Amino acid sequence: MAVTETLKRRVPLDDVMEELARAERLPPRDEALARAIAIVTFRRLGTLGHALRSRLNKPPKDERLMHLLAIGAAQILFLDVPDHAAVDSAVALAQEDPKLHHAGGFINAVLRRVAREREQILGESDPFLDTPTWLEERWIAQYGEEQATRIAEAHRSMASVDLTVKSDSEAWAERLGGVLLPTGSIRLKERTAIRELPGFEEGAWWVQDAAAALPARLLDPKPGERIADLCAAPGGKTAQLASAGAAVLAVDRSARRLQRLEENLARLKLAVETRAIDAEKLEAEPFDAILLDAPCSATGTIRRHPDVAWTKSEEDIRKLSALQGRLLDKAADLLRPGGRLVYCTCSLEAEEGERQAEGFLARHPEFQRLPVTPGEIGGWSEGITPEGDLRTLPFHLALPEHDRSGLDGFFVARFVHKPS
Ligand SMILES: C[S@@+](CC[C@H](N)C(=O)[O-])C[C@H]1O[C@@H](n2cnc3c(N)ncnc32)[C@H](O)[C@@H]1O
């Protein structure tokens, strides 16, 4: 079961789904349904657990049985699946498992009760129910109660699909029936098969969250500049740098992910040099500019990957922030005097954002901050901090169409090496 595997191994749901689809040779339709069920189960895991536990005299000790109930309840409460189909599929899954095959009657009774009490369960509206306590506490400490509540609320909705285009964004927005956001990305109005949209085959655009498109824009790449993208795969930001005409070296520790970058850039007809190596060990001539999109806890992407909330820990944040500091120091070494550095993470955690920027400037007096101005991002100022960094939050960029609002949580800081 993908939910149990993801939680047990603390790995991304996407990886588990990929393995499962391959092992069980799932047809694409079944895989898409299984993925949608797993995603909504993670998105509402707290609500589901609370609803189930409060309806059971003695919650079962076997966690797989609890997960089976959660998956069934998620379909009944949050997906367009008929109640009887959700109950039948949960009972059928239990019957395939030698340890659970006696539980059919129990599953049937619990899920039918969930279906009967749907309105009451959905009326329980505390958004923090779907946020693990350690994250709730962190966000309240960092952002205050009101903003933390809005973050948790935003995580209950699916993220929109945004595209970055090589050029002619207005014309493409019209052709694709999307909205041109102030920051320059196109937001699709409907969820659709991406590969069938006009422009996919010819490589005119790529999928990239509106916030994820900002760091490369803020690096302001110029034709012919030598730019290193130190944590590059799968290549959304590399594509922006290359399409601006820069000579890009795309570095990533993972050869498998770098291969995906190469495939993505081939579709976009963009050429870059690639190197599968730990960026800490990279030896190269000094660069004009560097983009460091460092590995992080990814808590800014919980709308897209709700499993992140339940698989990451304080320990991950501690380890990742140490790595981010080392990568920042390495980036400083690789820049020419006068060179620019953009550091970013898709994390909501200060240790991976604001604290990194402070620490970097304290360790490297030869650098100064190059503050972000609204004019560089289409006049959008909501995310700019008093220090001149960018801190986007999942509830920012509210649009009149509520279900199309929001963007990933990112931190972006820009530095320049003071010319000697
Ligand atoms: C946040 S993702 C990058 C996303 C990418 N910049 C994009 O826009 O598509 C972080 C990447 O860093 C890579 N990575 C992690 N540690 C690394 C290291 N020490 N050196 C180089 N790459 C590393 C991971 O393999 C992963 O692909």
UniProtKB/TrEMBL annotation:
<keyword id="KW-0949">S-adenosyl-L-methionine</keyword>
<keyword id="KW-0489">Methyltransferase</keyword>
<dbReference type="InterPro" id="IPR023267">
    <property type="entry name" value="RCMT"/>
</dbReference>
<keyword id="KW-0175">Coiled coil</keyword>
<dbReference type="Pfam" id="PF01029">
    <property type="entry name" value="NusB"/>
</dbReference>
<dbReference type="GO" id="GO:0032259">
    <property type="term" value="P:methylation"/>
</dbReference>
<keyword id="KW-0808">Transferase</keyword>
<dbReference type="InterPro" id="IPR006027">
    <property type="entry name" value="NusB_RsmB_TIM44"/>
</dbReference>
<dbReference type="InterPro" id="IPR018314">
    <property type="entry name" value="RsmB/NOL1/NOP2-like_CS"/>
</dbReference>
<comment type="similarity">
    <text>Belongs to the class I-like SAM-binding methyltransferase superfamily. RsmB/NOP family.</text>
</comment>
<feature type="binding site">
    <location>
        <position position="293"/>
    </location>
    <ligand>
        <name>S-adenosyl-L-methionine</name>
    </ligand>
</feature>
<keyword id="KW-0694">RNA-binding</keyword>
<dbReference type="GO" id="GO:0008168">
    <property type="term" value="F:methyltransferase activity"/>
</dbReference>
<protein>
    <submittedName>
        <fullName>Methyltransferase domain-containing protein</fullName>
    </submittedName>
</protein>
<dbReference type="InterPro" id="IPR035926">
    <property type="entry name" value="NusB-like_sf"/>
</dbReference>
<dbReference type="InterPro" id="IPR001678">
    <property type="entry name" value="MeTrfase_RsmB-F_NOP2_dom"/>
</dbReference>
<feature type="coiled-coil region">
    <location>
        <begin position="251"/>
        <end position="278"/>
    </location>
</feature>
<feature type="domain" description="SAM-dependent MTase RsmB/NOP-type">
    <location>
        <begin position="140"/>
        <end position="418"/>
    </location>
</feature>
<feature type="binding site">
    <location>
        <position position="252"/>
    </location>
    <ligand>
        <name>S-adenosyl-L-methionine</name>
    </ligand>
</feature>
<dbReference type="InterPro" id="IPR049560">
    <property type="entry name" value="MeTrfase_RsmB-F_NOP2_cat"/>
</dbReference>
<feature type="binding site">
    <location>
        <begin position="231"/>
        <end position="237"/>
    </location>
    <ligand>
        <name>S-adenosyl-L-methionine</name>
    </ligand>
</feature>
<dbReference type="InterPro" id="IPR029063">
    <property type="entry name" value="SAM-dependent_MTases_sf"/>
</dbReference>
<feature type="active site" description="Nucleophile">
    <location>
        <position position="346"/>
    </location>
</feature>
<dbReference type="Pfam" id="PF01189">
    <property type="entry name" value="Methyltr_RsmB-F"/>
</dbReference>
